[in-house]
Write a structure and sequence with these properties.
The protein contains 2 helices and no strands. The chain is mostly helical.
Length: 78
Amino acid sequence: MEEQDDFIHILDECINLLDENLNILNDIEYSLESEKEDVLVTDLTRHDLVNMAYDISDSTRIKKAESEFTKRFFETKP
């Protein structure tokens, strides 16, 4: 029984560590992916810039939602 308690404690510590660093890992992943998509476009209109701002905002919300879902998923695991 003691070994099982130790394992549960270690697992809880790992989950807490992942929770603490999840945003950092998401930011690193997003930065690496966005670097692949970096292309200089010189003929943008104001409408294009507004659309890009909305896209970035939506992407950020999606990443946050994914992070929160993952956190809740692991918190509810017995």
